[in-house]
Specification:
The chain has about 525 residues and is α/β, with parallel strands linked by helices. It contains 16 helices and 19 strands. It has an eight-stranded mixed β-barrel with strand order 10-11-13-14-15-16-17-18, surrounded by five helices. A hairpin with a 4-residue loop joins β8 and β9. The mean pLDDT is about 80. It holds the Pfam family EAL.
């Protein structure tokens, strides 16, 4: 990768990293908001519970406004830094407080409207009638009246800010009757971009915690130095990995080029047998790479690069030419067996490549009969490509090639498509064969696939036969040919040739005996 591409990739990684960082910060601050409001709600609820419990204890052991009652109220006031005054109200009149024995002052209408139509615990904010200071009032009902606890709103403000400000959040306490108007501060809720609310059903308050755009920006800026460091490190690692990957692919590509020039690619032969007697009737050619340094390399290590770079075309031509010489020796042993070579549909759609194939086949008489080309049903192609595919297949039929469809049953080819392409052989995918004996659903599917093959008048080949039970079931379905480790593994050409003459009328029992040995 050149330097401008590296710079562009680095910038792209940084941008993606920044976006991901913003998403992470937003998720984190949202969760922080939720945690903060939950903790704050627990703290407020616990504090009000304590006030209510202590007040209930005093009330249950005394008579409102008697000496013992007022002394108990005074002690509650003394013990709490938040409580400023506790008064007892009955019939809308202040009868007494923790500091005043007798009052008999009628409560102002502004206060009365806050709780006269409500039941249960009430919280509201107002100016104290006697002290003329802004305060938060907590109303606790009794059988005959109310205890009103005047709380220092400045302390409540500070308390909420202690919970929220440390996380760059904003919060407020409101009552349900005032339609969620903040009671403790002039919070700019019009600027809030995310907030959480908790409504206390017991004490009739609504707690709101959220954050503004400014808070969100500050959270991003606080996180930015760490995020930038991580993003830069990860970006450099990604670029290095891409360099390694690209260089590795280039290395494999150039190595494949060299291998093609030096004719290092050759075929292993896997026998295709008669399902009834095990007689070898053909063989599939499976590409191998005899590397000068690494020895025999399986297709899994290079075939993807070969296909993605188009080098598979050259490898296939090389294998075909090599097969021409090997097939001459096969014919000397058994003139009735065929060889099957893998191609791709994209090769056959390409008229120029088909011309090269035709040229090689025309050059070697051994390739003009008992040669099968097979491509997989997993490949897809458009209607236009289907026309090109049919033309290419026909050109190769004219020079003696027969056609097989590999992985039959796994793709999307409809019956009409299969009929129009006129395959000679259908190779049933190994996945259906492998589980056909143990799985009832696969058993049924394999039956249907075999029936379709018979309908199309094609020779059927079952791939991946590995056990005697599978071999027997394939034979019972009328599938005439099989291929798999039960019969033989892929082998070098010399081994295949030496064993070919011996593979005459071998029963399954004899195969089992041979495998046991």
């Amino acid at each position: 990768m050149n330097q401008p591409k590296n710079i562009m990739l680095l910038i792209l990684c940084l941008l993606v990293g920044l976006i991901l960082d913003m998403v992470w910060v937003k998720k984190n601050i949202n969760q922080t908001t939720i945690n903060t409001i939950q903790n704050l709600d627990i703290a407020i609820d616990s504090y009000l519970n304590k006030i209510k419990t202590d007040l209930t204890l005093v009330d249950s052991n005394t008579t409102p406004c008697d000496k013992k009652n007022r002394k108990g109220l005074e002690q509650l006031n003394f013990d709490s830094p938040v409580i400023q005054e506790i008064t007892y109200i009955e019939n809308d009149i202040f009868l007494c407080s923790d500091r005043i024995k007798k009052s008999n002052v009628k409560i102002e209408n502004s206060h009365l409207a806050k709780f006269e139509e409500q039941s249960g615990y009430v919280i509201y904010r107002a100016t104290s009638q006697r002290r003329r200071i802004d305060a938060l009032f907590f109303m606790v009902p009794t059988p005959n009246g109310w205890y009103r606890i005047m709380l220092d709103s400045r302390y409540i403000d500070y308390w909420i800010k202690q919970y929220t400000n440390k996380n760059q959040l904003s919060g407020c306490l409101s009552n349900t009757k005032d339609d969620f108007v903040c009671l403790n501060s002039s919070l700019p809720f019009s600027d809030i971009i995310f907030s959480e609310q908790i409504r206390s059903e017991k004490y009739s308050y609504v707690l709101t915690v959220g954050y503004t755009e400014a808070s969100f920006r500050n959270a991003i800026f606080r996180q930015l130095p760490y995020a930038a460091t991580i993003i830069i490190i990860l970006s450099i690692l990604i670029i290095l990995l891409l360099h390694v990957s690209v260089n590795f692919r280039r290395s494999i590509k150039s190595d494949i080029h060299r291998g093609i020039r030096n004719k290092e690619f050759y075929a292993y032969y896997q026998p295709i047998v008669n399902s009834k007697n095990g007689h070898w009737i053909g063989a599939e050619l499976l590409v191998r790479w005899l590397h000068p340094k690494h020895g025999v390399i399986s297709p899994a290590e290079f075939i993807h690069t070969a296909e993605s770079t188009g080098l598979i075309n050259a490898i296939t031509l090389h294998l075909l030419e090599r097969a021409a010489y090997e097939k001459t020796q096969i014919q000397a042993e058994n003139n009735n067996t065929y060889i099957s070579i893998n191609v791709t549909a994209s090769m056959i759609i390409n008229p120029r490549y088909v011309t090269e194939l035709v040229s090689i086949i025309s050059k070697y008489p051994s390739l003009q009969h008992n040669v099968v080309f097979e491509f997989t049903e997993r490949e897809t192609f458009s209607p236009t490509e289907l026309v090109e595919l049919k033309l290419g297949m026909q050109r190769l039929r004219e020079v003696g090639i027969r056609w097989a469809l590999d992985d039959f049953g796994t793709g999307y080819a409809g019956l009409s498509t299969l009929q129009s392409l006129r395959f000679d052989i259908l190779k049933i995918d190994r996945t259906f064969v492998a589980s056909s004996v143990t799985d009832a659903v696969t058993h049924s599917i394999l039956d249907n696939i075999a029936e379709m093959g018979h309908t199309l008048h094609c020779t059927m080949v079952a791939e991946g036969v590995e056990t005697a039970e599978q071999a027997e079931y394939v034979d019972d379905l009328g599938i005439k040919a099989s291929q798999g480790y039960f019969y033989a593994k892929p082998m070098p050409f010399d081994d295949y040739l030496s064993k070919l003459s011996k593979s005459v009328s071998t029963s399954r029992s004899e195969v089992l005996k041979a495998n046991a040995q």
